[in-house]
Write a structure and sequence with these properties.
The complex is a heterodimer. Chain A is of the alpha+beta class. Chain A folds into 2 domains: about 230 residues, no CATH class; about 110 residues, Immunoglobulin-like, CATH 2.60.40. Helices cover about 50% and strands about 20% of the residues of chain A. Chain B is elongated and about 80 Å long. Chain B has 2 domains: about 170 residues, no CATH class; about 140 residues, no CATH class. The two termini of chain B are about 45 Å apart. Chain B is an alpha+beta fold. Helices cover about 35% and strands about 25% of the residues of chain B. Classes of the chains: A alpha+beta, B alpha+beta.
């Protein structure tokens, strides 16, 4: 494909450094958050910084298409798969929920691969391109503009005028999959055009220096981590064992009976993508039975904390056994935003006997 | 001219003023005229096929499109932001979305027109902005001749007039669209010994390109007579208000008055001897450019004493 873009300037590291500074400035707010969320928020910030740094590193690296991405057929298949993902996000009735995150990740991967296949021509500055590449880049933008503007114009006009239902779809599209597709195409459509139209690379790639290979390898590894991390964390919600914090018992002045105390426990699952079901209650006992004062009603089963996880169908049950033991169970289904078609049950329990002691739930 | 286009587009796309009072079509016609003028200046290079352009012109055009692609992204973002701000600033058109059909839409004709004009005119505008040698096309003879200036002035004016004519015809010929919504039982009020429902109907002229009129009413009935559940003709009894009701029953909301103006809106209540209540909203619709041409818009809600809705919209 001819001479590729040269090295990026050193000041291209300034944006990710600025982002790190911003994230560091926000860290005190993260530290003050309650326990289960603090780690997840911190990991979210860390991931954002890592992803942005990855983007800048990938754009900075001079690459050759390689034997596979140099083939026009392979590039065209990737373009079609990317457009298929866009079509699914636009046309899915009722939205895709967390599955849309997977499609966005797939689009990002296609953009990275096709960017490498086209040697980042569409993102490179004019000074780094030869005359042929400049012409190719500008022509790609011209075609991309006509394609995207035409599609947006036709879709918006037709859906606005057709029926009230299509107009309602248009209104909902503003905060749904379609607007995500428009943003994604604004970023990657010129690259898709170049990848589709350019002929296969015929010139063999020259040997690269070891340092360059290391940088390329690091960039690709970071891309892989950026794409795999959300999937792995979502899988962790489903596969990792749930954690139940130790029950804390804080005595309070008794209102009636022999004693009262505040009990607190939390059930958590996941790292980064995570959910927590908190349980807080005040229970009193008189040696014959334990009874609750607050915290064990149905309305108390609506509290939960989650990061990138959906908590649904919360249920709770309360029961006093014949020996006066009070038993309470709070359960809910948790679904990671990514891999939203899978879910698991998260349960937090509490059982206090007639002497105010915690016992195992029967 | 490019700066003027930008300013007019910004006025069309801005969340304030909330209503252009029918002048939106004038703004759009001016934009079209300016776009045609710039097209004449640039010899329509932005829209010519590559085969008809020499290498230099093709490169200039493609460079303008590269800028236009990014400009389109910025423009779409600004339009989204503007529409969200406008939706936040606007009073509710009606009792929100009741029943199965929403009656207020985030996308109005103003933003539709702004988006379409953006993507249609942006390449020509940027080509004119970046071209170093844009000249008025001359048909020969002295530059001072009136004929050399006639086309650059006449063509944009005709284009603007044509746009206005097409828009007016479209609003007149396209069928009006009515959306209806019903909420039973009403969440706004309950009456002892009676049932209540909140009814709303919205009519948009020109399939959404013209003005819109919405009527919103809470009606109660007891098997013998129907009445306005919030105010108006009421039988004895004590209402229980469950939540903050609309400011008045038989309320009218006007919407999408950017390209047509609505005035003289009235809402009247009446009840016949059989206990059937009729609420009627009327308004006069005029164009901002031709205010002497007007037509009436009527929306009605008719409910019997048994709760049967005879007319909605």
């Amino acid at each position: 494909m001819g001479a590729g873009p040269g090295r990026g300037r050193t000041n291209s590291w300034i944006p990710p450094l600025l982002l790190v500074l911003v994230l560091a400035a926000l860290s005190p707010a993260v530290v003050t958050l309650p326990g289960p969320l603090r780690l997840s928020y911190g990991l979210t910030y860390a991931y954002l910084g890592f992803a942005v740094t990855t983007v800048f590193l990938v754009r900075r690296v001079t690459t050759r298409p390689g034997p596979w991405l140099g083939r026009r057929f392979v590039r065209r298949v990737l373009v079609l798969l990317a457009l298929l993902a866009c079509l699914v996000m636009v046309a899915a009735p009722g939205g895709l929920g967390g599955t849309a995150v997977l499609l966005v990740l797939w689009l990002a991967l296609c953009n990275v691969l096709l960017g490498r296949a086209t040697q980042q021509i569409t993102a490179a500055s004019t000074a780094r391109l030869d005359e042929r590449q400049r012409t190719l880049r500008d022509r790609a933008y011209s075609s991309a503009y006509l394609l995207l503007a035409g599609a947006i114009g036709v879709v918006v006009l037709v859906t606005y005028l057709a029926t009230a239902a299509t107009r309602a779809w248009l209104a909902s599209a503003i905060d749904g999959g379609p607007i995500v597709v428009v943003v994604a195409l604004l970023i990657c459509l010129p690259t898709l055009v170049v990848a589709w139209t350019e002929p296969a690379a015929h010139t063999p790639a020259p040997r690269s220096s070891r340092s360059h290979l290391l940088v390329v390898g690091l960039a690709m590894a970071m891309v892989g981590i950026s794409l795999a991390a959300p999937l792995a964390s979502a899988a962790g919600v489903l596969l990792l064992p749930a954690r139940e914090t130790a029950l804390t018992k804080t005595p309070v002045p008794p209102l009636t009976g022999a004693g009262c105390a505040n009990y607190q426990r939390t059930a958590e699952v996941g790292v980064w993508f995570s959910a927590a079901l908190p349980l807080r209650a005040q229970i009193c006992w008189n040696g014959q039975r334990a009874r609750y004062l607050w915290g064990l009603n149905r309305s108390d089963c609506l509290n939960y904390d989650s990061i990138l996880v959906t908590v649904t169908e919360a249920t709770c049950s309360r029961h006093t056994s014949a020996d006066g033991t009070l038993e309470f169970t709070y359960a809910a289904w948790v679904q990671p935003e990514v891999l939203a078609f899978l879910r698991r049950r998260l349960v937090v329990t509490l059982a206090v006997d007639r002497r105010g002691q915690q016992v195992a739930l029967r | 001219m490019v700066v003027a286009m930008g300013l007019i587009w910004a006025l069309l796309a801005a969340p304030e003023p909330s209503s252009l009072r029918g002048m939106g079509v004038l703004l759009a016609a001016v934009l079209v005229g300016l776009g045609v003028a710039l097209g004449e200046v640039t010899r329509w290079r932005a829209w010519r096929r590559s085969a008809l352009l020499d290498e230099r012109d093709a490169a200039i055009r493609d460079r303008a499109y590269r800028l236009a692609f990014r400009g389109m992204g910025i423009g779409i973002f600004l339009l989204l932001l503007s529409s969200l701000v406008a939706a936040g600033l606007a009073e509710p058109v009606t009792a929100g979305s009741i029943g199965s059909e929403p009656l207020s839409f985030l996308v109005g004709p103003r933003y539709l027109v702004a988006l379409l004009l953006l993507i249609a005119l942006l390449p020509t505008a940027l080509l004119a902005w970046t071209s170093a040698d844009a000249t008025v096309r001359r048909r020969g003879g002295d530059p001072g001749q009136r004929s050399a200036l006639a086309r650059p002035l006449l063509t944009p004016a005709l284009a603007g007039l044509l746009f206005f004519g097409l828009w007016t015809a479209a609003v007149a010929l396209l069928p009006p669209r009515t959306a209806r919504a019903e909420q039973r039982p009403s969440l706004a009020v309950t009456w002892t010994g009676a049932d209540c429902a909140t009814l709303a109907a919205s009519r948009e002229l020109g399939a959404g390109l013209g003005a819109a009129l919405t009527i919103d009413a809470t009606i109660c009935w007891n098997g013998h007579r129907a009445w306005d559940g919030l105010q108006g003709l009421q039988p004895p009894g004590r209402p229980t208000v469950l939540r903050t009701p609309p400011t008045s029953s038989c309320s009218i909301a006007v919407d999408a008055t950017d390209f047509e103006n609505i005035s003289q809106e009235t809402c009247t209540e009446s009840r016949d001897a059989r206990g059937t209540i009729r609420l009627e909203a009327r308004a006069k619709v005029t164009s901002g450019i031709t205010p002497w041409l007007d037509r009436s818009l009527v929306e009605s809600v008719v409910v019997t004493g048994q709760g049967q809705v005879l007319q909605l919209g």
